[in-house]
Amino acid sequence: METPETMRVDRWLWVSRLVKTRALGAEAVKAGRVKINDQPVKPSKEVRPGDRLELRNGELRISVVVRGIVRMRGSARVASVLYDETEESRELRERLSAERRLAAQQQLPGGGARPTKRDRRRFEAAREERWRG
Question: 69 near 12, Cβ under 8 Å?
Fold first, then answer.
């Protein structure tokens, strides 16, 4: 079985597991959140090994270098060898993840533990008060 030399960018995003579905990959490309070699592209744009691809999703910017192309979507292990994430992208992703964890811990009483029955009652009482006016 031979491996293709090029593949549509929307399909490659799906095969490489950077997006959950091919439709989400096409939507991201159409919305202008995907660039290849710093150029905005259409879903039909062909991706080749060596291309630099940038995917924006909210604050997160994933920047990868395409290393390979496979015909069919496989396991996460197979997908991980299809690209190399840049160091800046990896650092940004890890920093944003740490910030989200910290924010979630600060929102919950007890530094990240589940709300107690007392906490839940207080939340419900405050919500009812706000609803009444």
Answer: yes
